[in-house]
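Methods — Computational structure assignment.
A single polypeptide chain was analysed. Its primary sequence is given first, followed by the predicted tertiary structure written as structure tokens.
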Amino acid sequence: MARIPLLQLSGISLTFGGDPVFDGLDLVVQPGDRLALVGRNGSGKSTLMKVMAGLVEADSGQLVVAPGKSVGYMEQEPDMAGFTTLGDFACQGLEPGELYKVERAGEGLKFDPDRPVATASGGERRRAALAGLMASPPDLMLLDEPTNHLDIEAITWLERELKTTRAGFVLISHDRAFLRELTRATLWIDRGVTRRQEKGFAAFETWRDTVWHEEDSARHKLNRKIKAEARWAVEGISARRKRNQGRVRALQELRAERSAQIRRQGTAGMALQAGQKSGRKVIEADKISKSYDGVTIVRDFSLKVQRGDRIAFVGPNGAGKTTLLKMLLGEVTPDDGTVSIGTKLEVAVFDQARSQLDPDLSLWDSLTGTPDMRVSGSSDQVMVRGSPRHVVGYLKDFLFDEAQARAPVRSLSGGEKARLLLARLMARDSNLLVLDEPTNDLDIETLDLLQELLDDYDGTVLLVSHDRDFLDRVATTTVALEGNGRAVAYAGGWSDYLSQRGGVANGNQEKTKQSKAKLKQESRAQSGLSFTEKHRLEALPGEIERLEAEIAKLAGLLGDPELYTKSPVKFAKATEALSERQARLDTAEEDWLKLEEKAGG
């Protein structure tokens, strides 16, 4: 017996001023569906979700929700007018006996139900809206970037809840790990066309690349056919007075078909260039401690940051990640201990709050009005890594069109604001990047490019992120703020951190904490090593293995006898990188020998 669709869209067409967002869209959502909704920023994902929620009316077509079924939508900016507290908003529509569900969701998502709406941040409002939706799950949940403003503990809680829910859901997220874990089918919006595959997000990129390859092959065949027909038409003029008008019309139709094809949007033309080399030592913290209002943020923490390191800082919201970062950068003075900053540092900061962007300025003025980007005597040029560029041309590198150049920053989506901030950051030379939640609102293709740029960046990166997949791709060291002033450095990214902690990602498992603390005390007593030294000794084999692999890769590249002739710049960079990696390997091996000797002595 055929199932009755939970929600059905038929013949949906919608236009906002220019090209149609959707044209004749048909879509069915079945009971229990777990759908990833993916597509480039600006492709219409949020718009489609609002159509499904009945909040945006299509120009034509029909939305049908099965009788007796409900649809709930978590929007990015919930309207809380008329509600006094976040709890009042989250509890709307619930029976008195169900209010405990909001309290439970509030604990998992970390929001205070008693917080007045008037003083709540955007992130707190979103968490309250999500808690309300999870407390009274409708038959279909429409979730638009639910992990934004959540720390990893809250994301993990939400994953568990969505895994066990009987409701269906459609999910927009930039968080690959979240999508892979939860989805069983994928909706892909690409240039106004919505495709569906009955596989979860884990299979999306292979599917996308296959579709694009087939599209490129078809376009190539069409171009060859047009060239052949055009050659016949030209040669036919001298061979015959009267040409075959049928073939001429066919040629015109082929050219019209090619013109009608919608080209894929290219990836952002972002480029990241390190300035002068910093000193080998970038930052060294020695037994630093900091407390606020009797709460210990970090206690007796030591860390050495060397040129080329990619260090991630993770922990619950409010644990003190930003405070620790500011101490390392010299912006906040520790209560105890010392921080020494290396030489020749050129710091560039990506600010999570986007506070560097004035919402009332246009995109044009946001770039030309920046002192270190301004070109003297010019109102339409910006200085990009030492060379003048026209402001519109530079904005196009970050996927903005000419019409947006004079639009105010406040009109941009979250992803567009992130790209504009990256445009400002990448225009300048730097050798120390500080990235505070850079992945929020960026689409998957832009995240891929950002990761590649960071891989090739010849500088040092300090990163705060709750995106587990991005941490795994970028970080070489993860500093975890584990509560009660404990900050511990682990080799590798998020998965490596979990592995080293035995799969425990937070400090709530008290027995595990006590057991590990006891083992560490015993180990420390036996070895004569400090806690930081013991951790360094444990991390060094992985670091040495990674450096050896990088050296082997560079040596293989330099083994090409034609590399210098074909690409002298690439040859020079590879040679310099090989020398730098070898020096780091020598230091790591020397550190390992000293610590091993101390541990045995």
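Note: Residues 509-601 form a domain with the Helix Hairpins fold (CATH 1.10.287.380).
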